[in-house]
Design goal:
With about 110 residues, the protein is α+β, with helices and mostly antiparallel strands. It is built from 4 helices and 4 strands.
């Protein structure tokens, strides 16, 4: 999400020059035209007053965190490691894919 702090915006137009798809000027203040424009972050970083504020979507972050730390998800990964399973095929890891395990040069 993008927002503009109207109190900090001095109407310099740098954001519009950098990102005309994302911003336009109305009454000497920048307004958001398209917050999904690919140049929004560059314009925000270039604003001399720091008036363009990029806010992350907290709901998406929280949902991602809940998904990654679900007990079933972690247990499934852990049990596959313990059983020596190949994540791509689900089958056992063959001897050729287990790595060197110390039988190579330089180890005795």
């Amino acid at each position: 999400m993008v927002r503009i702090d109207k109190n900090n915006c001095v109407g310099c137009g740098i954001c519009v020059n950098i990102c005309p798809q994302g911003f336009k000027m109305v009454n000497r203040k920048a307004i958001i035209e398209d917050e999904n424009a690919s140049c929004i972050a560059e314009a925000a970083n270039s604003c001399p007053q720091g008036a363009i504020i990029l806010e992350e979507n907290k709901n998406l972050e929280e949902a991602s965190a809940r998904q990654a730390f679900r007990p079933g998800f972690i247990n499934a990964i852990g049990s596959s490691f313990r059983r020596g399973r190949n994540f791509g095929t689900g089958g056992p890891i063959s001897r050729g894919h287990r790595g060197n395990r110390g039988q190579g040069k330089g180890r005795r």
